[in-house]
Amino acid sequence: MILKEMTGLAFLQAMQKGALPYPAMWDTMNIKIADVSTGEIKFIVMADDRHTNSQGGVHGGFSETVMDSVTGCAIHTMLEKGVGFATTDLTVKMVRPIPENVELSAIGKVINLSKNLGVSEGRIVDESSKLYVHATASCFILNR
């Protein structure tokens, strides 16, 4: 398995460059990696009509899924070969509705990483840095 052969950062950089495919779910969620470095990752995301709820707005699950991915990937950037992670908790605060068909940035940053636990935060913002969503996450660190 390729994850055992690459650090988390190298794995995500390979996805960004197109050398490895994005997870299929990211196609559904319109997630693309814009930038990745140690402890931080930036996605470009865009909700569309597949992400709307019964009232016609973007479903909260869109924000929650993006936040789970971006906070987890931020932690992944700091993991060595053969080390994985699993989200243990995710707290998402939706500050304002996500607009449909508008490119937004999702930014994840590591707050703390220990041998057994990673803590990160995520934000969804527009091009003027207006905040739409804020999240914090904790992840177990898994030695495979």
How would you describe this protein?
- The chain has 144 residues and is an alpha+beta fold.
- It has one domain: Roll (Thiol Ester Dehydrase, Chain A).
- 23% of the residues lie in helices and 40% in strands.
- The protein has three helices and six strands.
- It has helices spanning 8-17, 24-29, 60-76, and strands spanning 31-37, 40-45, 83-94, 104-113, 117-125, 131-143.
- A six-stranded antiparallel β-sheet has the order 1-2-4-5-6-3.
- Strand 5 (117-125) and strand 6 form a beta hairpin.
- The longest helix has 17 residues, at 60-76.
- The model has no long low-confidence stretch (mean pLDDT 96).
Structural class designation: alpha+beta
Q: What is the fold named in CATH at topology level?
A: Thiol Ester Dehydrase, Chain A
The major sheet is characterized as: 6 strands, antiparallel
CATH superfamily: Hotdog Thioesterase
Average pLDDT figure: 96
Q: Beta fraction of the residues?
A: 35-45%
Q: Segments where pLDDT lies below 50 for 5+ residues?
A: none
- For the record, the CATH class is Alpha Beta
Order of helices and strands: HHEEHEEEE
N- to C-terminal distance:
11 Å
Number of strands: 6
Shape descriptor: globular
Neighbour order of strands in the largest sheet: 1-2-4-5-6-3
Oligomer: single chain
CATH architecture descriptor text: Roll
C-alpha Rg (nearest Å): 15 Å
Proportion in helices: 10-25%
| Discrete helix count | 3
Number of domains: 1
